[in-house]
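Might I ask for a little of your time on a matter of protein folding? The record follows directly beneath this note:
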Amino acid sequence: AVNRDAPGLMAAACAERDIPFLHISTDYVFDGEKASAYHEDDRINPQSSYGRSKAEGEEAVRAATAQHIILRTAWVYSPYGGNFVKTMLRLGAERDELNVVHDQRGCPTSAAEIARTLAAVAQHILSGADTAYGTYHYGGSQAMSWYDFARAIFEESSKMGAKPPKMLWPIGTSEYPTPAKRPKNSELDRSKILAAFDLTPSDFRSELRACLTALLQPAKTPGNP
């Protein structure tokens, strides 16, 4: 209902009012078997209920309005909610050793960077400039495994006083089974959106440091010494 029906209803409401619609989708619409980064016109083949419902949501948006931007992204993290960065910081503080999957690949993507990208797209549309509506990919600047991501998190967080685990071990997906199948490859090629909207993205490390700073070095305010 949330992933399929709601986007279609919202897009239809926007179409009635001549309002462009921006929608966030996911790498899970692909099966993850491609050896290189996914492009927007690659064949979708979702492997989970989540992926299928998100793919159906995309189709509902396309059917409801021509004025749409569907933004597929992946491996999202931020100072808020539940995500990989916060999980690693918590486990690093609790355990001396951690096992992290090394045979799944993606581009860690800051939610703040996604928000800035969508804001830039919206501003482009509002300026009256010609807009190529359709489907786009956006991910962080660097592809890596979950194991590599964890290493980067601990490298940067240790500089801010966080406790890293003494040992970090790479393991295969088969050693860390999950209820829903995760794509082996979640890397998304973002060249199309960068060119279409003249975007200048940040690099992976600067985005990660900004997130970690918000988590580990919150601004001092009255009542928050």
Q: What stands out?
A: The longest strand covers residues 21-26. DSSP finds seven helices and nine strands in the chain.
